[in-house]
Amino acid sequence: MAAVPEPGEPGKGKPFKLLGILDVENIPCARDSILYGSLGSVVAGLGHFLLTSRIRRSCDVGVGGFILVTLGCWFHCRYNYAKQRIQQRIAREGIKNKVLYESTHLDPERKPTNGNHSN
Amino acid sequence: MAHPLQLGLQDASSPIMEELLYFHDHALMIVFLISSLVLYTISLMLTTKLMHTSTMNAQMVETMWTILPAAILTSIALPSLRILYMTDEINNPLLTIKTMGHQWYWSYEYTDYMDLNFDSYMIPTLDLKPGELRLLEVDNRTVLPMETPIRMLISSEDVLHSWAVPSLGLKTDAIPGRLNQTTLSATRPGLFYGQCSEICGSNHSFMPIVLELIPLKHFETWSALTS
Questions:
Q1: Which residues on B lie below 8 Å from A28 (Cβ)?
Q2: In three state form, how does the secondary structure of chain A look?
Q3: Which residues form the Cytochrome oxidase subunit II transmembrane region profile domain (chain B) (predicted)?
Q4: How far is B61 from chain A (nearest CA, A)?
């Protein structure tokens, strides 16, 4: 057990954490949310500046855009991820049931027969 | 088990712990965004020459900083409550095991299908074999079947202890005179380590818990051999 390197061990390189807390490499959807948020922040901030030439207010709009876009992408991605996990669980159970119950009366693919069995 | 200098949660080996990991990711993302906003606000405060000394009211900002935190707390509380109620579900456990905390070891009783009880002491550092884990190994591991709901009844013979296995998302206090119940279900075989989590005296750090989860077939063989 001690020979196998665990994920995140110093030997493999420390995981990169934004602000020292958010591990964007290993948390599902984190990297995409932060990247889309950054893009949204740049677009919103730059767009506001080009329209109004107000630097400070454009920075505020940029930060606000970052938070909103990151949150929006985060909730959307996590919702889809949760749906996918449920589908994977159903598929795994289905495969297990198929293997276990193949050719028995509990086989999920077996068509029900209505005729009487002869002796 | 944790690897050296680990700060985060251990990998999940039970459905509840998986849910807790996802909730932790969600809460951490919200904390990260709030921290970014606060850092930005601080940097704004530091880089202004203006000083507004006659503010009388600020209705808009006061409304925002009342409603937004309420919304954030709601978005954290709802998944949290969902997991809280999930941990209280009892899914027809197939096996019941009693564990008693002592100063300073755990004892386990398998009384469902056999009459087995044993003590589980930590292996002292000087007696460890090469490759074994310091302060975590025990002389008698608790052998359990995997992918099976198991009821754990936890109590104590003397002072407060706490029976905890982080990778399964379990922590239940062992209180003398009281029987606490928790349900565990591991998704994969292996060794799962935990330590006493309630201060109980000088050797509080030296009474670990080791669960050995094995397939049901092997568990039946083991129980036949030991009973």
A1: 25
A2: CCCCCCCCCHHHCCCCEECCCEECCCCCCHHHHHHHHHHHHHHHHHHHHHHHCCHHHHHHHHHHHHHHHHHHHHHHHHHHHHHHHHHHHHHHHHHHHHHHHCCCCCCCCCCCCCCCCCC
A3: 1-91
A4: 14
User: CA B168 to CA B145: how far, in whole Å?
Assistant: 14
ipTM of this predicted structure: 0.77
- Asked whether the predicted pLDDT for residue B20 surpasses 90, the reply is yes
Per CB-CB distance under 8 Å, the chain A contacts of B33 are 67, 70-71
Residue A118: pLDDT above 80? no
Given CB atoms, is B22 within the 8 Å cutoff of chain A? Answer: yes
pLDDT classification of A5: cutoffs 50, 70, 90:
very low
Question: Mind listing the pLDDT tens digit for each residue in A17-73?
Answer: 888 788 888 888 999 999 999 999 999 999 999 999 999 899 999 999 999 999 999
Q: Quote the CA–CA distance of B162 and B178 in Å, as a whole number.
A: 13
Q: B95-226: CATH homologous superfamily?
A: Cupredoxins -  blue copper proteins (2.60.40.420)
Domains of chain B, residue spans? 15-48+56-88, 95-226
